[in-house]
Every structure is written in C-alpha cells, then in structure tokens.
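Notes from the 1:1 (GR / supervisor)

We went over the backlog. Supervisor wanted to see one worked example end to end before approving the batch request, so GR pasted a single chain during the call. The sequence is below; no edits were made to it. Supervisor asked that the structure be written out right there so they could see what the output format looks like.
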Amino acid sequence: MKRPLLYLLWVCLLAAASCSPEEERIPAAGYAQQEKPAALPEDRFLTIAHRGASAYLPEHTLPAYALADEMGADYIELDLRMTKDGRLAVIHDHKLQRMNGTGGQVSDMTMDELRNVSPGIAFNEENPELAQTSHEQLSIPELRDVLIRFGSAVNYYIELKAPPEGGRMEEAVIGELERYGITEKARQHDLPPVILQSFSEESLIRLHKMRPNIPLIQLYSFKENADLSSEDLEYLRSYASGIGIPAASAHAGFIEKVEGWELDVHVFTVNEEQNILRLIRMGADGVFTDRPDVARRVSSYE
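Structure output shown during the call:
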C-alpha cells in the first residue's frame, strides 16, 4: 500500500534523529577509509626524545635535539604552534609565562618576536646544577630551523598543538616536510621518517586525507585508567596508526586491547628506569622521555 508523502517524510526525519554518536562519525571517517593508515614497525620499542634530551639541555632547542640524537633516540619530538604570521614555532606552551614570566601568547606573536624569548633562562633556574650562561643565548626555533639543521639524519615525531579549523596548519606542516624532503627520505633503521600526532581528531583526519603514508598518533589525556570502546578503536583504526596516553593511565589490559586492533601504544612522559621497564613488560610500543639515554639503555635489557 502506498504511504502519503508526509508520512514518508516523517519516517525519514525520525530515523535521522535516532542516529547514535558513532553513526554520526561515519561521514567524517568516510574519506579516511580510502587508504589504510601507515604501518609502524613491529617488535621495536621506540625511544622518543621528549622535546629533545630536555632533562639535560633547554627543551625544544637545537642542542637538545642534537644530544638526543647522540644518545640514540629513535625520534626527536617537536611541539608546533602557529604564530600570528602563520609560521610554525617549536614550543609546547601556548603562553610564555613559564619561559619569560610574561603573559604573552604564541598566537599573538610573530616568529621573529618569539626568537627573542630564550628557553635557556627558565632551564637554568629550574636546573641550577646544569646551568650555563650559553643556554640563555638559545632561542625558540621555527620548524624549518630544525629541518635544515638535521635534514634526513634523524626521525621526527611532531605534535600539532591547537590546530585552527580549516586545515591551514596541516597544510603548512606537510609543506615544510616536503620542502626539505623529509617525507621522501630513506628510513632510519626501518622507521618511518616522520610521525604526526595531535589531540585533535579532526586535524588527524585531515592529515590522513592529505598524506595517508604518514603514521598518525591520536593523543588522549586520561586522568585514570585508560579505556576506549571497541567502537572507538574501530573508528581510530580508520585514520590512525596508534595512540598516545599518559603513563599514569597505562595498564596491560588496555594495551593488549588496543594492540588487538593493530594500533600501537606510545606512553608519555617516562623518565625513571623502573617505569620504562614496567611499560616495556606491559607491551607498550614506545615512550616519550626527557632522558633518551636511559630509555635506550633499559630497552636493551629486554
């Protein structure tokens, strides 16, 4: 029997209103499923130098990255923020309070203005036993400064922090990586030359659409034991190669569940030898650490 047009319209509207949150995510994942996420190496525990060898030298500076490389880190980690003039500053905090005692924000400053801020001043104050006057001459680098300095000699693990809508930051990051040939370089020790990460799901999906050959890591800030549903993990697997979680939230059951979906687990930030060893035995695939020499030594035990 034919139904009146108004009845059919009402049924369609009712069906649309009853969609679950997971169903609403399908269009966002649609283009991400065109290609599978890039694979990360199996059976290798990654030492990721958190802001460089930042336990020993001012964070996110060229000397800190050079030391991390000397210590055998698999990756040097960079935090990126977009400046007022659309450039990519290598800095973690969105405010400069910790570095220079002011309330200035990265997004309100040009890259040239940021170069006048030294991470070394705060480092010397926080680490008097490691303080050197030369540290105060160090400045906040731009992404291209790091790429020019190290080129294809190191692997890069880059976080996009607070990426604005529209994809401008993602395009800028990919543009710089391609400008300096990083995405095309030979892999170091069979590792991908670059891994990108973010807390922003939307940003990672945009990146996967742009360059599906680059591994992506979805970051989480769990306050207690980490947990994700099977539906969440299935969706993640459509665009990400792994996840990053705080050390306090990591537990063996969760790591086993995540890896059952062929996703890697990288844990932040871990500096003590016994904690790194505990995570290796849990089955974690890597750690972010301020002390890459310690992580390299511990991983060689296993």
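Supervisor's comment: Residues 5-17 form the longest helix (13 residues).
Batch request approved.
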